[in-house]
Amino acid sequence: MLNRKVIISCAVTGATHTPSMSEYLPVTPAQIAAQSIEAAEAGAAILHLHARNPADGKPTPSPEVFRQFVPAIVEATDAVINVTTGGSTRMTLADRLAYPRLAKPEMCSLNMGSMNFSIHPIAARMQSWRYDWEKDYIEGMEDTIFRNTFKDIKSILLELGEAGTRFEFECYDVGHLYNLAHFVDQGLIKPPFFIQSVFGILGGLGADPENMTVMRSTADRLFGRENYQFSILGAGRHQMAFVTMGAIMGGNVRVGLEDSVYLSKGVKAESNAQQVRKIRRILEELSFEIATPAEARQMLGLKGADKVSF
Q: What cofactor does its activity depend on (predicted)?
């Protein structure tokens, strides 16, 4: 196990954190492109991408904004481009699919169920906001549901899957693994699966070591370990310790400013690449090898960068 390749994914900006939470959060196309390229150079084989309004950093599904940074990343790196279908809790399904439908990427993220998804307690700790939209956006999460019904998931699998797109199946709870198994049983998903287990989000599984064991053993039982790649996302302060534990348990890892704006306790990450370099150093000191983009494509059965429409 120590000689296997570990895939590092980097979630560059997301749609959860707001500009007031970190001055280092990339929001303009130029910032997202620069930080993505640097993260790939640091060792990230997969770049998980969202878009933001360059004027105020608000999450946007606009294909026009995506087109201002994705081609630059593709030109500068050979990293796998993983485009969100989650968008944000304020977007419709049509909004969330606007760019993936056009780009037909190698990989898209796919949340495996509807859920409460919130960081609203952070609002009480914020002393000031840079933009007017931020406070209502964060506080409003308390009364907002992320929607992905069985019908929503099926439509995404059918439409994007027809173009050869494969998925980062984001599983925030054990039930999401069973949702995944449901679609496997229907023949809509074929191995190898890329299961992104998410811990530490309010509304999902907590970042307790016992929960990782439950997710791993459940996935083994449902799919057989030979049929899937396990990956770990630890939100917020849980990030580095939790993903390190996940690698030791046979998983891959995800870091990035979407998942945590910190590098260590009380120290903000000044870039996505800082987090990538840190987890890479930790893993290499534990004798793990880091997968290249080409190796990640092979491990995940991706269609190849030459078959996308960026």
A: Zn(2+)
The CB density around residue 105, as the number of other CB atoms within 10 Å, is: 27
In the chain the first and final C-alpha atoms are separated, in Å, by: 36
- Radius of gyration (Cα) for the chain, nearest Å? 18
How far apart CA 277 and CA 275 sit, in angstroms, is: 5
Instruction: For residue range 139-184, list pLDDT tens digits in order.
Output: 999 999 999 999 999 999 999 999 999 999 999 999 999 999 999 9
pLDDT of 119 above 80: yes
Q: How far is CA 240 from the centre of its chain?
A: 15
Q: Cα(7)–Cα(46) distance, rounded to whole angstroms?
A: 8
Cα separation, 128 vs 133, in Å, equals: 12
Q: How many domains does the chain have?
A: 1
Mean pLDDT, rounded, of the chain: 97
**Would you say 296 and 45 are in contact if contact means Cβ atoms under 8 Å apart?**
yes
Pairing state of beta strands 115-116 and 145-146? antiparallel
Residue 17: which CATH number?
A: 3.20.20.70
8 A C-beta contact, residue 287 and residue 2: yes
**Per-residue confidence at 2, pLDDT binned at 50, 70, 90?**
low
